Amino acid sequence: MKNSNAVKYGTISLVLIVFSLLTVPFLESTGEAVRRYTFTCKDNDQNAQFPDGKNYFVSSDVVRILSRGNNFVSEKVFTDKCNRNNKKVFEYFCKGNKVKKVLKKCNLGCSNGACIQPVTTPTPVQPTNPQPTNPTTPQPSPNPQPINPPNNQPPTGPICGDGIVNQQTEQCDGNDFNGQTCTTLGSAGGGNLGCTNMCNFDFSSCISRIPNVVLSGDEFFCEDPIKPNWVWELDRLNTPNPKLRIKNDFVKDDDTDNPAGLGDSYYLPKEQINEYLKIKFENLNVLPNMELPVTIEYSSGEDTAHSRHRYGRSSVGTIHIKAPGRDRFNILISNLDDINHSLPNNKLTSEVWLQVFPSQEVGIFFKDESHNPDMIYAGSFDLNNVGFRRFLEINFGETKDDNVVLAFNKIANDLVGIKVDIEGDTPIKLPDGKDDLYITFKHINNEFRSLGNQVSSEERDELWHETSTLGINYLGTKDENHRTRYGVIILNPKSNGAGDQVRLHIPNNQVEGLINIYQGNQLLFSEYVPLGKPIPQHFADLGIGNRNPTNGYTELNLQNSFEKLLVATANFGLQTSLTSTEDDYEDQIFLEIGKNNMIYDYNYNRQIRPSDNLNILNKQFTVDGINNNPYYLGIARQYNTQVIQHLIVSNLPSCP
Predict the structure, then answer these.
(1) Which pTM does this prediction carry?
(2) Where are the domains of the chain?
């Protein structure tokens, strides 16, 4: 008998869903023998030209097949697909017996699951001047033979794709199912049997649901039986504390899944069909007009001589930092060496220049329109200083002090870095070291010469983002906007990098999304949640709900004492490009949710008896009994008879 975690999935996809959570291969004890399950992976792209299966210009399938001994059990097909803005492709491939995927940038865009190939123009052939020849009369061949073009030659033997099951490895071929149907293969609810292009049965349209019987993994009432969003989870049915739960069976974790965006919701059980619960991404605390454009660039030919500093030059390469408006930056004078003692410890400005001095120091100049001259020397620091020297704070609305700070450091003999050090108001919102940007500049002969290593060219490592969890993400050659966890938008690094610029839009506060949870029309929970932080973890940190350390869920009490909403810490939160592992959202924000991340828990508080009338999520039905007899689980019944608890029900709710 399988363990309780395995037997709770009873739909046609039982075997695939359960076993995909386990290691490969694995063993199942049936009471008679131990039988081995194995996964195999087949990639239609894999050939001599593409041994790793990564052909980004052709959309194809990767098939994961589950077998038990020599018997086929089930399969799942993964098809290459374009991302939301059709700029990248999700390419599936095999790594051993596991299915993997990679997100690949398409230079010309993506269409129908493949990168668009560049059109090549054939080189015209120059005509030659043929020499006249003596014409001859063509002679017929003594033994003419019919010529079949190679591409039109008929198959020389039985193959997958000829429409006939004529090989031992074929379960089906085209419309030839070798006499099998969904019913003969164990699908109690019938349905339409399909055939894959690899001549294996496709059970995706078979229905294992038996009327009046409810098992773990079955679709909830009125859900699509083939691809349900919400399924049952049943356990301990014959005890005084039965477990009756409804959990999400869908995944929304990249932009091809269409996760909930601003103003969108997840509904339980269904939108506009008497939904019982709703989780809505209501709005953001920062609007687009609440962002400060900041440019950090290499600038040649700057005149620092009119500052009247001894190292000022009439034309010199600098690091130039600017923003529109007044007093957008706070220069940390007290952190500098050789300071201008006429200045206070902190000086506000909106334009700053960094220049390399012959003394191997970096001087800082700033603009002061009320002063003559309007460029003033602030102070300097050692060019060869190993650590980070913080010299500039962003001063914009609630983004101030330690929220966004620029720091200088030496990377190599001729490379220096500007670190954009980002942190939240509190460690609960965003700890230090979780959201930093790094920009590199080159200097030669006491003068800054370029952003990155070469002037007027974009380079992968001239700009990168780093967190302690996701590591380094090189951005210098990416040609779309990105957003950090704090909410800083990095405008098209590739096109701006070609002009030796890094352009940022810095919000006037850490960006947070308002998450509202409704039960019917009643608003139960309303809280702003930071980007990249799991919603349940943030709720628990704020003292909302009860964190269950055993299962990792945060339990939220609903209106009635016998019901709760369980939300999982993993994979349930607001994500953007530089918080998501896929890096596929650009500067947009979406509410991601993983499978089984949201569970409705109905606490019946006593043992279920025949003729009990239950009302779960506004769906009323009658329990006729609990059966512990051996029960066939859909397609798996030809391989094993299982003992599993299930409800026998009647008076089922009507569906629209």
Answers:
(1) 0.73
(2) 4-117+163-202, 245-285+511-603, 292-507
